[in-house]
């Protein structure tokens, strides 16, 4: 195989940029996009809850929300959640008005709102933490994101599959046209690939209406697909 010059382009540019550059390549070549994916089981999760209270005064609303959040955090820590894995947002206060017909708006109270996000490193304990979230003052489980801890490991596996796919496609195309690959000219890699869950459970009503066994099954049945892709310009052998 002849020596060739290899250009590697890292970034978020579309393959159109590589195609534009390839147009100026002064020798026979072909362009392929290799794709790879790895399916893994989640081993951690992040969920968030909302605490909302409406009271006559702003002070009472804030106090009620703060007390509910404090009790929730205490329950989580008692269950083994590390403090660094609990993130409680600042409080949001807003005045609530009644708008009677043909009358001025009437102040009826104040609404306080806080969000608490919890990272769960042991997925087997997720349901018990969700049960803790359903204690006094917790109004809604907003979202449950299933994740995998060692994402980079699986991203590399998906990347290698994408590379092999690009090679296989290029070799097949070249062979089909009576030619063969004679090296790589340019690699254009999009670094924005993100893990994608097959299914996501994000409905608080769904959780509260299901039996514990059904909820357990709904999480263990989930899978995460991690994808990657690479765009490559191959040099064709000169006949």
From TrEMBL:
Keyword Manganese: no
Matching PANTHER family: PERIPLASMIC IMMUNOGENIC PROTEIN, SLR1258 PROTEIN
Gene Ontology biological process terms from the UniProt entry: DNA damage response
Stretch forming the signal peptide: 1-22
InterPro entries from the UniProt entry: 26kDa_periplasmic_antigen, SIMPL/DUF541
Keywords on record: Signal
Source organism phylogeny: Bacteria, Pseudomonadati, Pseudomonadota, Gammaproteobacteria, Vibrionales
Name this protein carries in UniProt: 26 kDa periplasmic immunogenic protein
NCBIfam families membership: PRK11087.1 (NF008299)
């Amino acid at each position: 195989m002849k020596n060739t010059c290899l250009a590697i382009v890292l970034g978020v540019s579309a393959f159109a940029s590589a195609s534009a550059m390839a147009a100026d390549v002064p020798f026979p070549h072909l362009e392929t996009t290799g794709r790879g994916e790895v399916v893994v089981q989640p081993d951690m999760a992040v969920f968030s809850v909302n605490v909302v209270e409406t009271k006559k005064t702003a002070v009472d609303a804030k106090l009620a929300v703060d007390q509910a959040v404090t009790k929730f955090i205490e329950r989580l820590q008692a269950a083994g959640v590390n403090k660094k894995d609990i993130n409680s947002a600042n409080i949001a206060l807003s005045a609530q008005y009644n708008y009677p017909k043909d009358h001025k708006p009437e102040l009826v109270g104040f609404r306080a709102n806080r969000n608490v996000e919890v990272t769960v490193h042991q997925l087997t304990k997720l349901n018990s933490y969700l049960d803790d979230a359903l204690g006094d003052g917790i109004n809604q489980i907003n979202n449950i994101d299933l994740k995998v801890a060692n994402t980079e490991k699986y991203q590399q596996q998906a990347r290698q599959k994408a590379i092999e796919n690009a090679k296989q496609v290029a070799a097949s195309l070249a062979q089909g046209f009576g030619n063969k690959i004679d090296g790589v000219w340019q690699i254009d890699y999009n670094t924005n690939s993100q893990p994608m869950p097959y299914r996501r459970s994000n409905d608080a009503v769904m959780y509260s209406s299901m039996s514990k066994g059904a909820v357990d099954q709904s999480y263990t049945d989930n899978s995460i697909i991690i994808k990657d892709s690479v765009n490559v310009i191959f040099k064709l052998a000169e006949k």
